Known about the structure:
Order of helices and strands: HH
Amino acid sequence: MKPVYQRIIAILLMCVPGVLAIYGWTLMRDVLFNAFGGRGMAWLPFLGGLTLLIMGLALIGGFLFHHDRKRKRIQPRLIGKKNEPTHHNKPGH
Length: 93
């Protein structure tokens, strides 16, 4: 069993990309609400928020994919290995 402090540090490290993604989403939402309210579209904050959102989601998704691949919970077609049928010696196949 891993020490508790390692798990706490891992959770805190996963919160950083989550907070960045949430901030990006909020920034994009505010820009869109202002644009629909007649104040004009601010493209730079919108693109910055989109970048933060995509980067945050990519970091979280990459971490989860790496974590599951390490524990062999990923389907072979997702990690690039060819599916080897286990039923090739059965009659009729």
